[in-house]
Design a protein that fits this description.
This protein is of the alpha/beta class and 405 residues long. Helix content is 37%, strand content 21%. Helix 1 crosses helix 3, helix 6 packs across helix 15 and helix 11 crosses helix 13. It binds adenosine-5'-diphosphate.
Length: 405
């Protein structure tokens, strides 16, 4: 791989295309060259990009014709050509939300793989079509560049059957209704760095709390996923920015039968109007709620912590106790207060928080005598995708897990 060869990582959503450009430096360490996004696709598109050190490279309003994956990729390809003269894209790694029951690992995109992934659209209608549209756009616009799909679900394959079954009739289960788990690329990344960052728990029983605008927990044993708080969809488990987390299914029946809501309205309630936003009526952003004295904001934060602690207890039961607790993602990495409150609520498990270490953002958050150690470890899903892409396309040997990002 020469100086002008990069791997592109894409994360395509309904209204945004996020990207990272990685170069493999010496010793096979990935070096982040640029990170950015086109947001507001379909409304008011805007492009922004930063270099590997976080300095702004570009920030501009785009023409309204940049409105979907194809036009966004056209713009991005032009920007990359201008920015990195003579750059060759050796491969593109995509974040794809659903790999179903079959894809237990990332896969090089072939017509057969694409057909399999299209068949999973009904399981993730709000995300999968956009992920696949980006794959189609790359096939058309960067003809011949190999692509890799990395799934949010794969890391959770290999659970015991009892962890993934949803107790509904066989014909319904046969249609694909089971627990899949998500945020898998984040958990896989954390598991991959535990041996360096927290070696004493890397082979033990660990709960990782990915607390961002989406939030979930994963129980790890020896670096492998044993169970997760996400189930069939990314609505289950913890309270999130705009999603409720675990919900009595009778509530959904009542929304249809009692309140007469349409399918679309119920979907909007569940994905966009609930969780922290729904409880507080103020904001889905934890920073706003922590600053507010409003009783609704306080209840929202209390419920977020209460639910996280309750689900930590449940996963601890699955793991028969825990050796470590790891916080990651936007809230987990940045909010000492939320970490403190969750650790205090989990003190019965043996978590003894070191207030000073927590205020200083760790990485170790617990006292030396704590039976269960607590940590904060920044996640890096894009780097995980770059690593998988490099390995599957034969660009790296996989010997190095060094991250210089
Ligand atoms: P996403 O799931 O969109 O990738 P992130 O992991 O980036 O989300 O997390 C975004 C969320 O992190 C924001 O909505 C905000 O609530 C929260 N957050 C970021 N910084 C802080 C902070 N300093 N204190 C509390 N919450 C924070």
């Amino acid at each position: 791989m020469d100086d002008h060869s990069v791997v592109l990582v894409l994360n395509a959503g309904s209204s945004s295309l996020k990207f990272c450009v990685y170069w493999i430096a010496e010793a096979e360490a990935w070096r982040l060259e640029a990170r950015g996004q086109i947001e507001g696709l379909g409304t008011s598109p805007r492009f922004s990009a930063k270099d590997g050190g976080g300095a702004t490279l570009d920030n501009q309003q785009l023409d309204a014709s940049v409105r979907d994956a194809r036009s966004a990729l056209d713009f991005l390809a032009g920007w990359l050509r201008g920015r990195f003269h003579g750059t060759r894209v050796l491969g593109v790694g995509h974040r794809v939300v659903h790999g179903g029951a079959a894809y237990a690992a990332p896969v090089v995109i072939t017509p057969k793989a694409l057909e399999d992934l299209r068949a999973l659209v009904p399981l993730a209608p709000l995300h999968q079509p956009y992920n696949l549209a980006a794959i189609d756009a790359v096939s058309e616009r960067l003809h011949g560049v190999p692509q890799v799909a990395c799934f949010d679900t794969s890391f959770h394959r290999g659970h015991q059957a009892v962890a993934d079954v949803i107790p509904l009739p066989p014909d319904i289960r046969r249609s694909g209704v089971q627990r899949y788990g998500f945020h898998g690329l984040s958990y896989e990344y954390i598991a991959s760095v535990l041996p360096q960052v927290a070696p004493e728990i890397a082979t033990g029983r660990v709960i990782v709390a990915h607390l961002g605008s989406g939030a979930s927990l994963c129980g790890l044993r020896n670096g492998r996923s044993v169970d997760s708080s996400f189930g069939f969809t990314a609505l289950d488990g913890l309270c999130m920015g705009t999603r409720p987390g675990a919900l009595d299914p009778g509530v959904v029946l009542y929304l249809f039968q009692g309140l007469g809501l349409s399918v679309k309205e119920v979907e909007t309630v569940l994905y966009k109007k609930s969780g922290l936003l729904g409880i507080s009526g103020i904001s889905n952003d934890m920073r706003d709620l922590l600053k507010s004295d409003d009783p609704g904001a306080r209840l929202a934060v209390d419920y977020f912590v209460y639910r996280a602690a309750k689900e930590i207890g449940a996963l601890a039961a699955v793991l028969s106790g825990i050796d470590g607790l790891v916080f990651t993602a936007g809230i987990g990495e940045n909010s000492a207060e939320i970490r403190r409150r969750i650790c205090e609520a989990s003190s019965w498990l043996g978590v003894d928080l070191d207030g000073k270490a927590n205020a200083q953002n760790g990485p170790r958050l617990s006292t030396p005598q704590s039976r269960v150690s607590a940590w904060v470890i920044p996640t890096n899903e894009e780097l995980m995708i770059a690593r998988h892409t490099g390995l599957l396309l034969g660009l790296t040997s996989g010997k190095s897990v060094a991250a210089r990002t």
